[in-house]
Amino acid sequence: MKGIILLVLGIGLLHTASAVTHSLKYFFTTSSEVPNFPEFVVVGMVDGVQMVHYDSNSQRAVPKQDWMNKAAETLPQYWERETGICKGTQQTFKANIDILKQRFNQSGGVHIVQWMYGCEWDDEAGATEGFVQHGYDGEGFIAFDLKTTKWVAPSHRAVFTKLKWDINTPDNDQNKNYYTQICIEWLKKYVDYGKSTLMRTVSPSVSLFQKNPSSPVTCHATGFYPSDVMVSWQKDGQDHHEDVEYGETLPNHDGTFQKSSHLTVTPEDRKNNKYQCVVQVKGIKDDFIRVLPDQDAANIVPIIVGVVALLLSIVAVVVGSSLEEEEQERLCSGQHFRH
Q: Which positions, given as ranges, span the membrane (predicted)?
């Protein structure tokens, strides 16, 4: 079941931050018949760091970073109000999954609907980007084109939804304004509020692992921050890409990140050449290098590295003391996204 959840969350990986890009992303996930998993989860992240959470089990919108909690102190009823909004959104998403199951002639079984939206800002070039995607059962279902303010349906199954949403011009214009203006403004504020956390650098711990002499060698970097990292291989001092498999950057429970790269190399080639893993983390000048020892001299402990994939949740939080004076960040909403 977890594999299905992770597949759906993968739509959020379509927008990976570059070395100078900050991101604000929200994930809404509703599911049916997934054991030991909440029916509804909302996740909010700034630069890959979770900031707020809501799920149908706790039924509470809560901050996940101290700086988010402090920012809302001027609004005494803020979290109670957002909890109520999320509860309403939960019912909308529950209705959506029932609608799609009926439309596709599906009865029972595991089904998942997800909505991912957000924006990115390049703090050097000044370029911005917004994005909206809906997924169903692990595949892209429908997305919003900010240039045309029209919905794009990659599957014929989403055509009915596209036609329904395209005619709602006021909502689509409002969406474009949010993703190109308001979202960017709040992203900048969040980065400023959380700069002590978001702008820090933490060096990685780098290790080499191999299950057995015939299996690939894994270079595993963990505990680093920020998430922008390169884990690469060199052969005799030159960049080496042949027979190399690159893993994704994944979150750790403590807010840091981990990433692996796997090298397939024969014992003979390993004996006659010098291989080394090179880890480069944004903001840290020095590279972190681990030299692959000769097969005969190797003392690489056969360890299987466990990775826990994060399912988080959120409510888009309004930060600051002048809530009534400026346009609000998009909160835990989505009622108009009725399929």
A: 300-320
Whether the bond into 226 is cis, omega within 30 of 0: yes
Task: Give me the tens of pLDDT residue by residue for the chain, a chain 339 residues long.
Answer: 444 343 344 444 333 333 468 999 999 999 998 888 999 999 999 988 889 999 999 999 999 988 887 767 766 788 888 899 899 999 998 898 888 888 888 888 899 999 999 999 998 888 999 999 999 998 899 999 999 999 999 888 899 999 999 999 999 999 999 999 999 998 998 898 898 888 899 999 999 999 988 899 999 999 999 888 999 999 999 999 999 999 999 989 888 999 999 999 999 999 999 999 999 998 899 999 999 997 665 545 443 333 323 333 323 322 222 223 344 555 565 444 566
The b-or-e profile of 2-21 (16+ CB within 10 A means b, else e) is eebbeebbbbbeebebeeeb
The size of the chain, in residues, is 339
Q: 314 is written with which tokens? A: 């959120």
Q: How many CB atoms lie within 10 A of CB 52?
A: 28
CATH 3.30.500.10 applies to domain 2-197: yes
Nearest to 310 by CA among 4, 28, 6, 3: 6
Structure tokens belonging to residue 327: 């346009």
What is the spatial order of strands in the sheet that 275-281 belongs to? 238-240, 229-235, 275-281, 288-292
User: Helix, strand or coil for residue 66?
Assistant: helix
34 token code pair: 């997934």
Q: Among 217, 221, 241, 219, which residue's Cα sits nearest to residue 229?
A: 221
In the chain, list all ranges with CATH 3.30.500.10. 2-197
Quickly list H helices, the chain: 2-9, 66-71, 78-103, 159-166, 169-177, 183-193, 195-198, 267-272
Every domain of the chain with CATH number 2.60.40.10 lies at 205-292
CB 152 within 8 A of CB 11: no
Read off the pTM.
0.72
